[in-house]
Amino acid sequence: MQSVDILQRVFGHNAFRASQRAVIDHIIRGRHALVIMPTGMGKSLCYQVPALCDWPGEPPVEQAGAPLTVVISPLIALMKDQVDALRRRDVEAVYINSSLRRNEREQRYREVASGRHRLLYVTPERFRKAEFLQVLEQRRIRLLAVDEAHCISEWGHDFRPDYTRLAEIRQAMNNPPTIALTATATPDVQRDIVKQLGLVPDEVELFHEGIERPNLHLDVAEVWDIDDKMQHILREVQPERLGTGSGIIYFTLIRTLLEFSERLENEGVPHVNYHGDLQRERRRAIQEQFMQGEEPLVLATNAFGMGIDKEDIRLVLHADMPGSMESYYQEIGRAGRDGAPSHCLLLYEQGDLATQMEFIGWSNPSSEFYHRVYHILATEIEKVNAFGTDWLRDKLHFKQRHDHRMDTVLAMLDRYGVTELDEKTGDLTLVSDLPAALTDEERLEAKLRRDQEKLLALVNFVRHEGDRKAYIHEYFGLPYQAVSEQVGE
Fold it and tell me: Is the dihedral angle over the CA atoms 239, 241, 242, 248 positive or is it negative?
């Protein structure tokens, strides 16, 4: 079937939006693409449609076997949501990740190897597994799609080390046509994405939809204390403001979220809370209640939002300052996807800046600290496994238990394949030496400076007295033409 037939019959849309058709035509001719498209504009269709339609000059399925599109995504919850949505449309799609039990994972390996499924969703870490690579060798890989492509770049705001192996991964799949997609990427990040894919700029067509959302009204209010924040929040969540729509209030810290939740309960404002300390089943239930409109207001940390494709979000309120312009833009992008006026309010208190600076410190341990953690794991791994990470935290930080550098180190050791976690016992095993990326002090200091510069850019945005949308465009290296009568402003 042709791409338009797939769009109509499978996805139920009458016409493509923006540059979707141009991207798809480019891909099915066997070419590479970098797609930068605002949240909610249908990036996924740019690889889902090519995965299902006929390609010019491609041999029939009867001769070459069913082609497979491999989708690399960093988020386990998001890939499950996408696969579930595809299956409801009778599309053969599957995901393979660490959330599966061993027998489930092996069953899916067999299915993919035998020729089932047209789309396969995996995390980049899955390519460490030799048995997974053996499965891929038995399929004809038609297309490689890299979602959340900013994770490829060390200049990005959510860098994932396994993404740096994408050039090697592409080679293992015989260098298929590749599409990288993201909602945000500065010019530096765009160049780095192409480089990390093992391609050169002339080989990759850039499709940039810009970041303009005329229906979003961006607002910043400086506040002085918790009571001041509360008054702003109460004003924004009144029924006459939200109407029949929904709202998200973002917090940096769980304890702050819970404090405001108690205050809203005392004011009789119905809401639900979403944060990382909740059980997975509870988080999923809350997300479903929000998506169905049963709970129109959610208080959340930044763990909430990926995969939230809800049209009528009228309010995105940041009760605390985010850590970067990229994070801020992604989160406000969840508002007003139906094109109706929506309000994006950032409450700025100077104390929030200190919190974000502390976060940056935690997420940027020194080379010496990496060596210290590695030494303990190398010499006392039995105690770590017996007594848990609390024992390790006490040994590292003594009485400074609020220091979270250890969490960053353990996460990075896992991402770089230095440690492995036994899924059955929960025990850690040290499997390799520290990589140069985690011991080069100059490199680590450069990353720390970049993170600080990202935060400074957001502080400058808060203090900007002109058109804030123009500021965002300049940050992302895009031209901007002001709309004199923007919707909702």
Answer: negative
Q: Which residues contact 118 (CB under 8 A, 6 or more apart)?
A: 51, 52, 66, 67, 68, 69, 91, 92, 93
CA distances, 192 to each of 59, 151, 163, 189, 435 (Å) = 34, 10, 11, 5, 20
Q: How far apart are the C-alpha atoms of 79 and 159, rounded to whole Å?
A: 18
Q: Is the pLDDT of residue 213 over 70?
A: yes
Place of tokens 């010496």: 368
Q: Which residues contact 463 (CB under 8 A, 6 or more apart)?
A: none
Give Rg (Cα) of the chain. 23
Query: Under a CB-based contact definition with an 8 Å cutoff, are residues 353 and 318 in contact?
Result: no
C-alpha count within 13 angstroms, C-beta hemisphere, residue 28? 22
Q: Is the pLDDT of residue 343 over 90?
A: yes
121-147: per-residue pLDDT in tens? 998 888 888 899 999 999 999 999 999
- Tokens 């995965």 belong to residue: 51
Count other Cβ atoms within 10 Å, centred on residue 476: 20
Quote the CA–CA distance of 108 and 254 in Å, as a whole number.
37
* Residue at 33: amino acid letter: A
Q: What is the pLDDT, as a whole number, of residue 483?
A: 46
What kind and span of H or E run contains 98?
none
